[in-house]
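Our example pasted here:


***
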Amino acid sequence: MGQMHAEAALQPLSALPVGWRGIVHSLQGGHEFCSRVANLGFTTGAQVVIRQNYGHGPVLVALRGTLVALGRREAGHIFVQPAGRN
């Protein structure tokens, strides 16, 4: 039952507000997309912090000591467990 509750709280990266942290849970998409974002550092367990998210346009994410800009559609295919405000 706890597993279901944890999965229900998963959100796409594009839904997190500025300043919030998340832990990467899963990637959703084709092999090419998943391989590309994994190579950028978006792997299971990686911590991310939202630095810019206006609700439209790119999402700027701090990840493994660097800033990564993702298109909104790309950010919508990366699912994270929200971990609170930074």
